[in-house]
């Protein structure tokens, strides 16, 4: 970790000196926001047929709204982080969640498919900035040796969303109408604003904060390499997850009723990975990232080799979800190597994850279009994990050579 980053965190911690109760309440508020964002991002995947029927488009055409949201995340994270460089973090979090809530509620009333697509893009804009700033706030409240765990607790809202939030919102959307699901997500955004306003103390803009300073992150090779680890290394998880329903029914020969169960196993794995990975990260950030990349290579290869066996399929899907363990460590390493340009780097991590999502899904689909079964997405994932490990090894090698992050 850079001396500047340590000094900044130590200064914030000593000035605030929050109690355990205060830390817990702030973490809860931030995690509720990540729960809402996670639910809003993934719920559309289960409601595409209903959206397609409403707007009289095909399901593949309706899928463009998923891409629109992802594009909003990729574009919004760095732009907002830079433009809001001189804004207090509490204020920025409130504005980001206000935009998220308004975007989802407006999505529920979209009159046309074109307007719905635009609104999903707008709703995606605050995604990365919120997660990045929330991670910085959480890390600033605890001792340095507990930072990864604090970041993981904020991300716990996202992993719980995959397990609980998305299924509930999807069920609500199917029971009533898909618009109700987005109203629910917008409501979570409003609740988050209230919790942040109540529990997160007002803060001051950091001394020396500026757009120029934030843009300085782009000059740091370690920031780009860390983003590369996320964009490439996590693509494998998305490659497999995007086609896991097809693998379940066409490769393992299970009925469609088993798909929700397999998806739930993935969600459970993400939660377990987040909790365990946060603790491992506090022991060794680099060891956790490198170790999980190797873990992913092994498990994803095993997935391809054994996907035809229903029991092994379930075990591997759970373990692939556990690969999320590296996420809090990658987020924290980005904060470290960015020195005094932490907001841009932390927010951009989620742009990198959405690139991983697009890359993994595209490569997985490409392999299937070549005539391979959906189980081959595991090999795609393993190769992407090898790529992520190679980028990480380069990052660590350069760090050792230069003597600093």
UniProtKB/TrEMBL annotation:
A GO molecular-function descriptor: transmembrane transporter activity
Keywords carried by this UniProt record: Cell membrane, Membrane, Transmembrane, Transmembrane helix
RNA-binding among keywords: no
Cellular localisation: Cell membrane
Main location: membrane
Membrane topology annotation: Multi-pass membrane protein
Keyword check for Protein biosynthesis: no
Transmembrane domains' residue ranges: 22-45, 65-85, 92-113, 119-142, 154-172, 178-200, 221-245, 251-273, 285-304, 310-330, 351-372, 378-398
All residue ranges annotated as the Major facilitator superfamily (MFS) profile domain in the record: 26-399
Pfam families in UniProt: MFS_1
Any single Gene Ontology cellular-component annotation: plasma membrane
Gene3D superfamilies in the cross-refs: MFS general substrate transporter like domains
PANTHER family documented for this protein: CHLORAMPHENICOL EFFLUX PUMP RV0191, PURINE EFFLUX PUMP PBUE
Protein name, UniProt field: Putative permease protein
Phylogenetic classification of the source organism: Bacteria, Pseudomonadati, Pseudomonadota, Alphaproteobacteria, Hyphomicrobiales
């Amino acid at each position: 970790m850079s001396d500047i980053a340590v000094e900044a965190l130590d200064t914030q911690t000593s000035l605030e000196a929050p109690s355990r109760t205060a830390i817990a309440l702030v973490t809860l508020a931030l995690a509720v926001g990540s729960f809402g964002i996670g639910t809003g991002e993934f719920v559309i995947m289960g409601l595409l047929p209903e959206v397609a029927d409403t707007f009289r488009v095909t399901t593949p055409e309706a899928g463009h709204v998923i891409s629109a949201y992802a594009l909003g995340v990729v574009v919004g994270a760095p732009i907002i982080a830079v433009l809001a460089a001189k804004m207090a973090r509490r204020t920025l979090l409130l504005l980001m969640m206000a935009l998220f809530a308004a975007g989802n509620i407006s999505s529920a009333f979209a009159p046309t498919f074109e307007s719905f697509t635009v609104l999903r893009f707008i709703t995606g804009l605050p995604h990365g900035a919120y997660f990045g700033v929330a991670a910085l706030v959480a890390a600033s409240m605890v001792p340095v040796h507990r930072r990864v765990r604090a970041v993981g607790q904020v991300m716990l809202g996202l992993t719980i969303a995959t397990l609980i939030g998305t299924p509930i919102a999807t069920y609500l959307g199917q029971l009533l109408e898909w618009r109700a699901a987005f109203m629910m997500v917008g409501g979570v955004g409003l609740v988050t604003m209230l919790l942040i306003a109540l529990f997160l103390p007002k803060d001051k803009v950091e001394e020396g904060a500026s757009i120029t300073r934030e843009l300085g992150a782009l000059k740091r090779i370690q920031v780009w390499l860390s983003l590369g680890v996320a964009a490439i290394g996590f693509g494998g998880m998305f490659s497999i997850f995007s086609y896991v329903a097809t693998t379940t029914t066409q490769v393992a020969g299970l009925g469609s009723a088993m798909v929700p169960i397999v998806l739930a196993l993935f969600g459970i794995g993400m939660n377990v990975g987040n909790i365990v990975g946060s603790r491992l990260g506090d022991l060794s950030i680099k060891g956790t990232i490198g170790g999980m990349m190797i873990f992913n290579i092994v498990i994803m290869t095993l997935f391809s080799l054994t996907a035809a066996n229903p029991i092994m399929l379930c075990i591997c899907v759970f373990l692939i979800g556990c690969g999320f363990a590296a996420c809090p460590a990658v987020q924290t390493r980005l904060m470290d190597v960015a020195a005094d340009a932490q907001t841009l780097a932390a927010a951009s991590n989620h742009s990198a994850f959405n690139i991983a999502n697009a890359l993994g899904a595209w490569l997985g689909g490409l392999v299937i279009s070549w005539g391979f079964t959906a189980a081959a997405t595991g090999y795609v994932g393993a190769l992407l994990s090898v790529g992520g490990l190679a980028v990480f090894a380069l990052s660590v090698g350069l760090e050792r050579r230069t003597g600093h992050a």
